[in-house]
Amino acid sequence: xxxxxxxxxxxxxxxxxxxxxxxxxxxxxxxxxxxxxxxxxxxxxxxxxxxxxxxxxxxxxxxxxxxxxxxxxxxxxxxxxxxxxxxxxxxxxxxxxxxxxxxxxxxxxxxxxxxxxxxxxxxxxxxxxxxxxxxxxxxxxxxxxxxxxxxxxxxxxxxxxxxxxxxxxxxxxxxxxxxxxxxxxxxxxxxxxxxxxxxxxxxxxxxxxxxxxxxxxxxxxxxxxxxxxxxxxxxxxxxxxxxxxxxxxxxxxxxxxxxxxxxxxxxxxxxxxxxxxxxxxxxxxxxxxxxxxxxxxxxxxxxxxxxxxxxxxxxxxxxxxxxxx
Amino acid sequence: xxxxxxxxxxxxxxxxxxxxxxxxxxxxxxxxxxxxxxxxxxxxxxxxxxxxxxxxxxxxxxxxxxxxxxxxxxxxxxxxxxxxxxxxxxxxxxxxxxxxxxxxxxxxxxxxxxxxxxxxxxxxxxxxxxxxxxxxxxxxxxxxxxxxxxxxxxxxxxxxxxxxxxxxxxxxxxxxxxxxxxxxxxxxxxxxxxxxxxxxxxxxxxxxxxxxxxxxxxxxxxxxxxxxxxxxxxxxxxxxxxxxxxxxxxxxxxxxxxxxxxxxxxxxxxxxxxxxxxxxxxxxxxxxxxxxxxxxxxxxxxxxxxxxxxxxxxxxxxxxxxxxxxxxxxxxxxxxxxxxxxxxxxxxxxxxxxxxxxxxxxxxxxxxxxxxxxxxxxxxxxxxxxxxxxxxxxxxxxxxxxxxxxxxxxxxxxxxxxxxxxxxxxxxxxxxxxxxxxxxxxxxxxxxxxxxxxxxxxxxxxxxxxxxxxxxxxxxxxxxxxxxxxxxxxxxxxxxxxxxxxxxxxxxxxxxxxxxxxxxxxxxxxxxxxxx
Amino acid sequence: xxxxxxxxxxxxxxxxxxxxxxxxxxxxxxxxxxxxxxxxxxxxxxxxxxxxxxxxxxxxxxxxxxxxxxxxxxxxxxxxxxxxxxxxxxxxxxxxxxxxxxxxxxxxxxxxxxxxxxxxxxxxxxxxxxxxxxxxxxxxxxxxxxxxxxxxxxxxxxxxxxxxxxxxxxxxxxxxxxxxxxxxxxxxxxxxxxxxxxxxxxxxxxxxxxxxxxxxxxxxxxxxxxxxxxxxxxxxxxxxxxxxxxxxxxxxxxxxxxxxxxxxxxxxxxxxxxxxxxxxxxxxxxxxxxxxxxxxxxxxxxxxxxxxxxxxxxxxxxxxxxxxxxxxxxxxxxxxxxxxxxxxxxxxxxxxxxxxxxxxxxxxxxxxxxxxxxxxxxxxxxxxxxxxxxxxxxxxxxxxxxxxxxxxxxxxxxxxxxxxxxxxxxxxxxxxxxxxxxxxxxxxxxxxxxxxxxxxxxxxxxxxxxxxxxxxxxxxxxxxxxxxxxxxxxxxxxxxxxxxxxxxxxxxxxxxxxxxxxxxxxxxxxxxxxxxxxxxxxxxxxxxxxxxxxxxxxxxxxxxxxxxxxxxxxxx
Lengths: 325, 532, 572
Description:
- The complex is a heterotrimer.
- By secondary structure, chain A is an all-alpha fold.
- Chain A is built from 13 helices and no strands.
- Helix content of chain A is 74%, strand content 0%.
- The longest helix of chain A is centred in the N-terminal third of the chain and has 36 residues, at 89-124.
- Helix content of chain B is 30%, strand content 21%.
- Chain B is built from 17 helices and 23 strands.
- Chain B has helices spanning 2-23, 42-57, 69-78, 99-103, 123-134, 138-152, 191-194, 223-229, 279-291, 298-301, 326-333, 339-342, 402-410, 425-430, 460-468, 472-479, 510-519, and strands spanning 31-36, 62-67, 84-89, 158-164, 166-171, 175-176, 196-197, 203-208, 237-239, 245-247, 250-257, 260-265, 304-309, 314-319, 364-370, 374-379, 393-398, 416-417, 435-440, 445-450, 484-486, 523-524, 530-531.
- In chain B, a hairpin with a 2-residue loop joins β11 and β12 (260-265).
- In chain B, α5 (123-134) runs antiparallel to α6 and α15 runs antiparallel to α17.
- The longest helix of chain B has 22 residues, at 2-23.
- Chain C is α+β, with helices and mostly antiparallel strands.
- Chain C folds into 2 domains: 5-51 and 351-553, MetI-like (MetI-like fold), CATH 1.10.3720.10; 53-82 and 153-338, 6 Propeller (Neuraminidase).
- Chain C starts with a helix and ends with a helix.
């Protein structure tokens, strides 16, 4: 199989997965969630009035027609109007996605920037106390639920020391218009410190341990022995030869992590009141806001699938041993 | 042969007849209590378990099912598929008139999706409901309203569990003269008009975890939308902090007869774009609402048959039937929209956020709204009430949750909370000298509604007994920390004018519960289970 | 001795694990947690759901700025108190009577066990005490005498009319006149007659008596005519207490912060705005314009001449009586009050939550859900994942395509949001939580096992088995499976950790099984209550438990990884 047809096949598979997910979501929401107009009862609306609202939402149409409409619109990147916000879903979702991605990417970058060299170093000091301590702390932050570490961080830095803001993305009210205007401020960075720190600590463990373990494997490879035989310094062997060859699994893990990042860490967004996609989807499902819930979830899924695809392609490029099966 | 057969049959019948009382001892069917999830409302959640424990003591098989809020509403209202449900009605200003809450027990509201899911059906009650609705004389109406409360209470189709106080706070170093309003708390339409700055900043900053669904006066279906829009749209009548109707954009409201109401507008009012406010605008607005798909105000508009322009500043409302709440509720809720802006809009409910007109004539002028973050208004210096207003604007900061709001209040970023504080925050606020904590009684209520169509709740004795078995005093003390009140009738005691204090009460009394059941022929089997 | 192949496969890893120090620590900690879960009911000191309340004969003393908690008078609630000159009496539940003698409180034995609700003193030390079940006690000197009551009414208030007679009121609208000379009680007809409770009675300056009760009921009794008449005070609230000073200043306190005040005998009753809306149980006023009111949850307010001010108290006890003599101000209580947000103590090792529930017991019980979901979820994941992987890897072809496409689709679903949606869709229950945790995670296991099987199926021993005529099932489960066992164990361990965190996450978001206790749920409660910022004892332990449990599982999994991957072993 040629490389090209392999790629096409993989892309088609990805689209197929996306379609299946979209279909499952569509029916799951409509069958499983309560009527989106249910909450209007408490505002005093009678059944006829609620039917009118349902018609406005397009929910009085037969299910199959709603489904076809949903699919054709989704293909064009249109997700309709949110029931609760009465605003185009795409606007809301993109903004929330951006908020989530900023948080997650910053955290992931920090985690890998620290974790990878640290992992390499630990492998070099294998068996020592430093190694054990490194493994211990890496795993410890991986074991502590983020909502808890987040709460403790808020308690310590926000409440007891009151040196860092604990909720939201910026001090309100503010005067900014564009998206970048809002993000490129010191105030924003100030607000991002705690949540980014918490997510980064959680993610730190995996590049650290993967790097350490693959390095240990790489040490056994022939070319390292050759380098040793040539009399190169251990440090040079470590960073110039071994590390370069150990990066592939780390990069893979990085791509997968970024893919899953769109799904965000709902709890972090909840604990730090971060207006991200994860919290939005939770609200959307709770309020039976079908268009918003569908769009949010689909975009998360698209992210994951795309990044997984990217990993596969990366493999075929970097590692000639992988065949185009 | 034949006769012996007949004889045998008779014998069997006789035997059955003789043993019937013993065989009829059937277990009372198990009941399921629906309540909210703990995250939606920990108080109703815990309350359900307190009730269930006491009912089990009476030998009833009880399960508690916490449901997601929407699902709960669906089961309760839309499907009426429940045994008994704990829910609540919020106290909105327009519900101070007893019309709405009394209506929740009217049998004609018993259809699927309507407001009486418990299906209480009492023709006498329905007749009184119609009578009070048509009664224009306030005292006569009050007597009927009192009679209705006294009438339904012994049947307990619904138990008003408790009224919860809204505990809010404001920063006393930045603003004074903050007067809370029953049911509305501090975030009422009066506080921005009355607040007086004591610090440097004259802009009143409100903080809350909720925001409007939208600020389209023809699409918003949430209290949070209307609480905000009310500040920049005028109404003909305004309810005072003591909830008396006070002419506002109108100078007079006169009932020509039971079904004809003449309203004269104030002179010289201007919309924020400089156009004058005329009778045309008022008539247009009412027609526009009545002809639109938008249904939020339908209940208020139902009695209106037509609106005539009778002069530059005079309009006449023709009602299809006498309506006591028309002058207080309807006229105080419908905003005056500028005709010249809205008349060209065909499907107003489809407007996107940036297309929504925000021109009103109210004491404040719309400035901006950044979804999820911030809203602001400036004071309208041309408004007839402007001389009485001390603030130069109102800002509303939207936080993700109550935590964020409280932190902002503590650090002085906001001047007052729009929504109640969490129980854990109240002592902290009380300990802060800069903050004044205000406890506002609510006339909305949390209720447990029995499905009177379903056994065992179709039996009034069971309902009465189970009501005796609810330790509501304990719920108020333990769950609300004493900040609330045990409920009596659907018209709350704080709504003193309409509330009837002399109705039957069901104070917690397990012995009374048991004797109520015994009196109705119930007993307990050897394992203590309730049988009949 | 021959061991079944899978046992042999399991024994090897165990030996290796025992060489790894971290793994041994992990095993020990995990065993400890498992033991805790198994014996939770025996280990916990309280019922974790029980709202802990205390009844106490509390005494609060007015200090400089706050009302300070003083030494309690016994374990039973105190309901009323009165002093006159050197004599002071306090009455309370279950026949509690305290008398002050020489500045010390002394418990007095009385011949009844009933709850005593009110006390009235005469200057000569004679006293009347009334209570539940028609209890009327007369003290003369040190002698207590039970007076026969016409009915076993729940008597709530008593006041002397003069030296020879007293008026007693009760919860069934009883108005009784008691004559000391004859020792008899005369029932006075109430002007209402609907059985509304009267709660308190006081002697007015004109010699009449005013009784107050529920629904704003006020009845004035005139000893001259021996008749009772209805009076309006301007409230329909339940009125709990009346106090009238000798000069005619009067204070009525009631539910919902009801404060009715009258400065002079002829003045109108004024409804004062109260700074708190909780129930007021008792009040005190003098003719110099001083006044105090006390009630639920330690609320005490004092009149500063213009408005009522809340004065801080040291405890949230329910106050029922005031005992005020000169500068010595005492507030007495308390019926059962919730021990909310108590820091760790000998009674509650981890403190209590906002409803006074014991947090140590909650944490101990919390281990059960964590382990249950952790292990059941992981077992389910491994069961599905391993089988899918085995079948896909072994059969190849269309079976493999279908299974692996399914796995692909599942890889496209973000885990956390999906689990949330699943729980929201089907309503939280233990089963749904386990499903939500495991329904997606098996994808990883399936992929891993499949790739292992792909290489194993080409190995000579598999080919040999096939040639020998072994069935597919036999080859899969007897020949291939033991070889993927180390990998299965590794995945099992990792997924146990993942599942425990996932369950905690769901519970933290309020989507855990309802009314079950879990570590995540405890943190959820803490956050929901808003008290977690101050109550460190509430949010610290559950997180530490989650962390150590998951950490120990990860330690174990790390040593299993060495087993599964021999290349690592060589380097270790």
